[in-house]
Amino acid sequence: MDLVPALEEPLKKVLGPATAKVMAEHLGLHTVGDLLHHYPRRYEERGQLTHLADLPMDEHVTVVAQVADARLHSFASAKAPRGKGQRLEVTITDGSGRLQLVFFGNGVHKPHKELLPGTRAMFAGKVSVFNRRLQLAHPAYELLRGDSEEAVETWAGSLIPIYPATAKLESWKIGKAVQTVLPSAQEALDPLPPALREGRGLVALPEALLKIHRPHTKSDIDEARSRLKWDEAFVLQVALARRRHADGQLPAAARRPKPDGLLSAFDDRLPFTLTEGQRKVSKEIFDDLATEHPMHRLLQGEVGSGKTLVALRAMLAVVDAGGQAAMLAPTEVLAQQHHRSVVEMMGELAEGGMLGGAEHATKVVVLTGSMGAAARRQSLLDLVTGDAGIVIGTHALIEDKVQFHDLGLVVVDEQHRFGVEQRDALRGKGAQPPHLLVMTATPIPRTVAMTVFGDLETSVLDQLPAGRSPIASHVVPAADKPHFLARAWERVREEVGKGHQAYVVCPRIGDEEDDPKKARKSAEDEAEKRPPLAVLETADQLAKGPLQGLRVEVLHGRMHPDDKDAVMRRFAAGDTDVLVATTVIEVGVNVPNATAMVIMDADRFGVSQLHQLRGRVGRGSAPGLCLLVTEMPEASAARQRLNAVASTLDGFELSRIDLEQRREGDVLGQAQSGARSSLRVLAVIEDEEIIAEAREEAAAVVAADPELTALPGLRTALDALLDEEREQYLEKG
User: Fold this and answer.
1) Of 73, 237, 505, 585, which is the most buried if we count CB atoms within 10 A?
2) Do 10 and 181 form a contact (C-beta atoms < 8 A)?
3) Is 683 in a helix, a strand, or coil?
């Protein structure tokens, strides 16, 4: 992060080529500086043993334990037919539980001599199950003799650092490598401005690196961690602040709606009044559009809070001002759906250039990859001449052929599904950079918004429009109480009997080829003994069984776009009673008459995904019902997750629960969950205050010195953060 010559030294020069190769390939560590920033995950105390009782399945673990007994068995096998096969079984204990280690063949001799009862050692390997018991097969181990000079040196102090390791490189080998390069820490350039560091009482960087790798006491670890958290938060926020600063320097055309133009004509036709929230957020957007720098705004709103309406009013304001607006949707189903609902909301205002079109009308066109050639040509023509003020499309909008007359606003729906290059390509289609509005229906806790979308201003819609109905959610424990599942299907029939419709959501499509790779099940699947439920099988069973006589159709991502569209149209028109679908319905599908949803194998979905799915019902005046079906036992973490979803409709509360339960890496996107995650010690939820303070400090530093000329250490740290992978991650905004 703070690479200077000593820290830029390639590891292969310092550690030898074999170790350096494994570190580069498996941990993404290339230089001395990279290794110094590979912090221990936790620490073992000399006198204290790890908990063997709660080892995670299928993960590489490092444990410190004592040998309880060791037995050598002989057996006959194909390779050793005369009973000469050898298996060494070693039981280790740590007071909380016991764990079996097994060694076979020639691999038994060394451990048989060394792992005698009473010996203490560190063991590393992958946890598996054999005969219903946890075991490590052929673990690597390092004896803790505590008397030889080298052992005392390596495990200096009473705290043994346990590093994030891989099968190819155990924690203690990483520890030894760190000890080799630790003297270089003295030369680490400090990225924090001295005033900031002293003002907050943080230790200097070299001292923090020393204390995190070789702590003598727990307070050493705390001091080091709070210092290193500040580094991460601050450097990241400086990168974002510089982007905001650079974006603020770009020119853009100010777009102000005409007093009695398209926007006011549209507002006059609305059959309801805007919520307080919609008015407030619209004002923030219109203020941004009226400036001569591009707007960069994130609009996050609860499922069904009326984001599309807010975005449409922004698009109309831009059309009023003579520009064009493009809305980018992640899927064809969604692009078609948005197009239909926008045309419906606008009525004759969407019929520009046609008979019966209103005087301020414009054309609203759709552009997707699967359109016929003639329709596509017409849409492209309408865009280049400027006849179409609004275009809604998938990434087909980004192709080179697509040209705009005057692109003034880009609205991106469901942010997390778009790559960076795609958004930049669309941005590049304006004569000047267009204004950008990013919408997401996945509520994001404030700190994540400050971290992932830190270069966007944020607007939040947290009120539901009047007329929206409450959604009742219940967990249906199919394994413990099968009659609950039977009752769920009765409820679906009752809703259909009242003239409503229902969704049934499954995790899988069901026409997958039997992939030999997928056949090797994980231990968790073994425990569950069945693959996730599939749309095609479930639809068939329901139509022949509990939902017999109802009109059941299927929808999934591998259907031809025309077929998908036809299914959605029939469902929207009320010609289908029950739609059995995958998560393609997760986003944006709007059928107010659908009141019930049954989510099969609900434990296989994430919290925010369940919340998204549930938002598809209760969109009309009748109350919604969401049933979360699971076979997981009551005490499991999966059931707790489902209970959390059932207990609240507040997406922000759920996104917090989600973050606490998953690792942040999943939430912060791929670049964050790779081996070289740029967040090593910073926890987005716990460290909310640090992130907020770092954002303020960063804004002040960048405002005073945008090029950071007075802070060479900070510049170096930024360069290291913004290598290609992180560039992409930051570009998320």
Assistant:
1) 505
2) no
3) coil
How do residues 399-418 score in pLDDT, each as one tens digit?
A: 878 899 999 999 988 655 55
| Tally of residues, the chain | 733
User: Distance (Å, rounded) from C-alpha 703 to C-alpha 722?
Assistant: 20
Q: What is the pLDDT of residues 304-331, one digit of tens each?
A: 678 889 999 999 999 999 999 999 888 8
- H-helix or E-strand containing 50? none
DSSP string for residues in 161-196: EE---BTTB-HHHHHHHHHHHGGGGGGPPP-S-HHH
How far is Cα 459 from Cα 438, in angstroms, rounded to an integer? 10
- Give me 23's structure tokens: 């570190």
Q: How many CB atoms are located within 10 Å of the residue 69 CB?
A: 14
**8 Å CB contact between 329 and 355:** no
Looking at 130-134, 265-269, 666-670, which range is the least confident one?
Answer: 666-670
Task: Count the Cβ atoms, other than its own, within 10 Å of residue 406.
Answer: 16
Contact 85, 74 (CB under 8 A): yes
Question: Tens of pLDDT along 503-527?
Answer: 999 988 876 544 444 444 443 443 3
The alpha helices in 28-154, defined as continuous H runs, are: 32-36, 109-114, 149-154
Residue 88: DSSP 8-state = E
* No. of helices (H) and no. of strands (E), the chain: 30, 21
The H or E element spanning position 259 is: none
Task: Give dist(CA 8, CA 31) in Å, integer.
Answer: 5
Q: How far apart are CA 713 and CA 3, in angstroms?
A: 9
Classify residue 515 by burial, with Cβ atoms within 10 Å: 0-12, 13-18, 19+: exposed
Give CA separation, 246 vs 240, 242, 243, 465, in Å: 10, 6, 5, 37
Strand, coil or helix: what is 722?
coil
Distance between CA atoms of 234 and 237, rounded to whole angstroms? Answer: 5
Question: What is the Cα–Cα distance from 639 to 644, expressed in whole angstroms?
Answer: 9
b vs e for 477-494, b when ≥16 Cβ sit within 10 Å of the residue's Cβ?
Answer: bbeeeeeebeebbebbbe
Q: Minimum mean pLDDT among 153-167, 196-210, 600-614, 640-654: which range?
A: 153-167
Which structure tokens are listed for 125?
């390997």
b vs e for 609-623, b when ≥16 Cβ sit within 10 Å of the residue's Cβ?
bbbbbbbbbbbbebe
The DSSP result for 374-417, as a single string, is HHHHHHHHHHHHT-EEEEEESGGGGSTT---S-EEEEEEESGGG
The dihedrals phi and psi of 435, each to the nearest 5 degrees, come to: -70, 150
Q: Count of CB atoms within 10 A of residue 14's CB?
A: 16
